[in-house]
Amino acid sequence: MEKRRVALVLAGGGARGVAHIGAIEELERRGFEIAAVAGTSMGALVGGIYAAGHLEAFKEWMCSLDKYKVFGLVDFALSTEGLVKGDRVMKAMQELIPDVRIEQMPVPFAAVAADLLTGREVVLDRGGLYDAIRASISIPSVFRPVHRDGMVLVDGGTVNPLPLNRVRREEGDLLVAVDVSAPFGADPTTRANASLNYYKVLIASSQIMQQHISQLMCRLYRPDVLVQLPADSYGMFEFYRAAELVEAGHAVTRAALDACPAFG
Predict the structure, then answer these.
(1) Calpha distance 31→48 (Å, rounded)
(2) Is 141 one of the annotated active-site residues of the chain?
(3) Which of 115, 136, 138, 155 is catalytic?
(4) Alpha carbons 177 and 162: distance in angstroms, whole number
(5) Sign of the CA dihedral running 246, 249, 254, 257
(6) Is 41 a known active-site residue?
(7) Nearest C-alpha neighbor of 15 from the set 116, 89, 114, 77
(8) What pLDDT does 262 receive?
(9) DSSP string spanning 48-78?
């Protein structure tokens, strides 16, 4: 039986993006062939590593991280552009998985970033994989922006957090989106009683903005399957919960597919 082809779109969401690993594994377990990938931020990171053919090694590395190892990957920057350089984590990944040019990868791939100087969306589908990933994950005020070709590139979530219009799709391909920053799942009363601080206000405001953009994208480019993990289900920087996040990706993808009569 011929596998059904999928054009896969992966959203950003910090550590929740690790759930994309479980989503990919579940799609493949159900017999789907992932024919192309587009992603923003952590969606670009996981999607790019998958498209390069190294997801299993990346998963093992992620699941080996505890709080101390995660903190050890943070290289604080003496800069007004961002708190973290981002060089240390990128170097660790390159030691694990060699860099490759995107146009030479076995699966077509595109990452999304935004140019602070013009406000334009920038689609990175050629050149070095890690250059594209580093630009796409540059969360404003957290990671230093990437200066490249006269642009100042930051996290693509500011312009296109769920890039349904940027994945290469051939006739007959199913459009599958995995949104790991989906609308909040907790009771609003619980959220109202939670203490607030500068960080929580900044993160929640960004999440709400991205949720509305993603909802608009889903109306413009309707996915055949929409997998959702609420933005308040895991923290942005809880990478030490990688194994749990992978399983969460399996669960929400399984639920989304089971809810579709054609795939259940």
Answers:
(1) 21
(2) no
(3) 155
(4) 8
(5) negative
(6) yes
(7) 89
(8) 72
(9) HHHHTT-HHHHHHHHHT--HHHHHHT--B-S
User: For the chain, how far is it from start to end, CA to CA, in angstroms?
Assistant: 17
112 φ/ψ sector (left φ>0, alpha ψ -120 to 50, else beta): beta
CA angle 200, 181, 211 (to 5 degrees): 90
| Alpha carbons 26 and 253: distance in angstroms, whole number | 7
| Segment 101-105 mean pLDDT | 97
**Predicted TM-score (pTM) of this structure:** 0.92
Q: Which pair of tokens denotes residue 36?
A: 């192309």
pLDDT tens for residues 1-36?
568 999 999 999 999 999 999 999 999 999 999 999
259 exposure class (CB count in 10 Å sphere: 0-12, 13-18, 19+): exposed
Residue in the structure block whose two tokens are 């996981």: 46
pLDDT at 75 over 60: no
Continuous segment of H or E residues that includes residue 209:
helix 198-220
Count of C-beta atoms within a 10 Å radius of residue 189 = 7
pLDDT tops 80 at residue 174: yes
**Is residue 96 predicted with pLDDT exceeding 80?**
yes
> For residue 220, how many other CB atoms are within 10 A of its CB?
9
* Distances from the Cα of 32 to the Cα of 9, 86, 174, 176, 212, angstroms: 14, 34, 9, 11, 29
Q: Which of 19-28, 136-145, 225-234 has the lowest mean pLDDT?
A: 136-145
What type of residue sits at position 80? Answer: T
How far from chain centre, in Å, is Cα 2?
A: 29
Q: Is the pLDDT of residue 200 over 90?
A: no
Using CA atoms of 210, 120, 18, 174 in order, give the dihedral in degrees to the nearest 10: 90
Residue 166 in tokens: 């940027």
Position 108 scores a pLDDT of: 98
Out of 41, 181, 214, 233, pick the active-site residue: 41
CB atoms within 10 A of CB 44: 33
